[in-house]
Amino acid sequence: MSVRKKYPTDFKAKVVLEILKEEESISQLSSEYGIHPSILNRWRNMVVEKLSSFKKGLTVFINKVYDLKVATGLNYLLEKLLSF
């Protein structure tokens, strides 16, 4: 029975970064690192999915902060207008 090989996260990040640069094909990287192409594809897909989720979450956060600043600014203006 074979034992699954575990790779450190920093190593996976390095390899995925090389995949995303597209300077070498996944087949070439697979040969270079001795890792099956399906594993490299899985790592890449996981990173792309996480980045997509992160981008969506960051966009929502920025929009909420912007809306809060706009609302705060409007409240300030209303207070000033009503105080006359």
From TrEMBL:
<dbReference type="InterPro" id="IPR002514">
    <property type="entry name" value="Transposase_8"/>
</dbReference>
<dbReference type="GO" id="GO:0004803">
    <property type="term" value="F:transposase activity"/>
</dbReference>
<protein>
    <submittedName>
        <fullName>Transposase</fullName>
    </submittedName>
</protein>
<dbReference type="GO" id="GO:0043565">
    <property type="term" value="F:sequence-specific DNA binding"/>
</dbReference>
<dbReference type="GO" id="GO:0006313">
    <property type="term" value="P:DNA transposition"/>
</dbReference>
<dbReference type="InterPro" id="IPR010921">
    <property type="entry name" value="Trp_repressor/repl_initiator"/>
</dbReference>
<dbReference type="Pfam" id="PF01527">
    <property type="entry name" value="HTH_Tnp_1"/>
</dbReference>
<dbReference type="InterPro" id="IPR036388">
    <property type="entry name" value="WH-like_DNA-bd_sf"/>
</dbReference>
